[in-house]
Design goal:
7-stranded parallel β-sheet, 400 residues
Length: 400
């Protein structure tokens, strides 16, 4: 069995060599390499379609990423090619990005998260974890996901696996009345629930002044022309990890947001490893090999990570001061302010479009994978009691 693998896969030799001979994808020679591949495992940088696969012996395609925009799923289905994705592998990583950035934004406003209203648009793998964590930090959460709400056979609290009652379904118009708006939807162009330009001129005008708007879903969910016009009028705080027309970002778009990053919300060591493990497990199913039990997977993951983060000693009730101490502890994992500064220095002042695109790709490519809040929480869990103000927050992270 010949496997053709993306060289950026985490722990690839360790995880995939059991299936056969492993060859690393060379973008310049992939059309030649594919001719002798039985299994193709990629990340989001490889376009998998008819042009690549036609007349190849490939029987199985896997992507060690959560998205499938780079995969022609219809072609795979028509040609009876088995497909596996690592859906949700980096969901906790994106949730980390949300928690750290909304903490920073609320503190910029000299406010806490306690009793703040937050609307989560899209409650799939990522949105579900974001809801759970923000509830544990004291927020009142509104969930807007019409297709999920229509098809869900259990209550929202059962779906979230929580007892907290500070969460409810809302319509899109109701969701706009909020302190914070977090977008976690796929990009859907047509159908009953399109999300393209969901946040447009009309909906932006309905947001309250100083609203925090975070987009870690898809760039084109926000109409950037409308955003750039309304943002200064309403003093909106934008936190954008994805961008309309990405990888091109205009200087005006970059200057209109409070916190910017180059589509790296899901880029963590643990998330990348989980992607590889999920595809390895899917290959075992495809090849009818005995699957690896969950305990073995968890033990392997733990062996790859050690936590050296400081223990957070807090005896007080939750307040702006204790929240800032929490934020300072978590910022040791990643300073998104530093990333924002570096990102802007690469893209500003405005360059010619080709150079701007190259700069975006360069910053994203060279991003050093961070650890996750879970690594910190595991270190904390052995040392805290139920009286700790962030006891529930830590337990929530460990149960995600």
């Amino acid at each position: 069995m010949n496997l053709l693998l993306d060289p950026q896969l985490s722990n690839a030799t360790e995880l995939f060599s059991e299936f056969g001979e492993c060859t690393w994808i060379d973008p310049l020679h992939i059309t030649y390499q594919i001719k002798s591949a039985d299994i193709l495992i990629v990340r989001s940088t490889t376009q998998v379609n008819q042009k690549l696969l036609k007349n190849s012996p490939v029987k199985c395609v896997g992507t060690a990423t959560s998205g499938t925009d780079h995969i022609d799923l219809h072609y795979l289905q028509r040609n009876n090619i088995y497909f596996a994705e690592a859906k949700g592998c980096n969901a906790a990583a994106v949730a980390d990005y949300v928690v750290l950035n909304v903490l920073a934004a609320r503190h910029e406003q000299e406010k806490t998260l306690v009793d703040a209203s937050v609307s989560i648009i899209g409650c799939g793998s990522v949105g579900r974890i974001v809801v759970r964590r923000l509830l544990a930090l004291g927020c009142h959460v509104q969930v807007c996901d019409p297709p999920l709400q229509a098809n869900l056979k259990i209550s929202l609290t059962d779906y979230l696996n929580i007892r907290n009652k500070n969460v409810r379904w809302v319509s899109w118009n109701e969701a706009l009345n909020t302190d914070m708006l977090c977008l976690h939807t796929p990009l859907i162009q047509q159908g009953d629930y399109p999300t393209h330009h969901l946040l447009n001129m009309n909906s932006l005008k309905k947001l309250p002044d100083y609203c925090i708007v975070l987009n870690a879903g898809r760039g084109s969910v926000i109409d950037m022309q409308a955003w750039e016009k309304i943002q200064p009028q309403k003093k909106l705080l934008g936190i954008f990890d994805v961008w309309e027309n990405e990888p091109f970002i205009s200087a005006s778009s970059l200057q209109s947001v409070w916190r910017a990053s180059p589509h790296i919300a899901g880029h963590t060591k643990r998330g990348k490893l989980m992607g590889s493990i999920m595809i390895r497990d899917a290959l075992r199913v495809f090849l009818k090999i005995k699957t690896i039990d969950q305990f073995t997977n968890v033990s392997f993951i733990k062996s790859q990570f050690g936590s050296s983060h400081d223990f957070l000693k807090l005896e007080d009730e939750i307040s702006l001061d204790t929240e800032k101490k929490l934020f300072n502890a978590l910022e040791n994992i990643e300073s998104f302010k530093t990333l924002d500064d570096n990102f802007r220095s690469f893209l500003l002042p405005e360059k010619e479009k080709t150079a701007q695109i190259s700069a975006f790709k360069e910053v994203r490519k060279n991003y050093i994978l961070r650890e996750e809040i879970r690594d910190w929480a595991e270190n904390m869990s052995a040392n805290i009691s139920e009286n700790h103000p962030y006891y529930n927050f830590i337990l929530t992270i460990l149960s995600d």
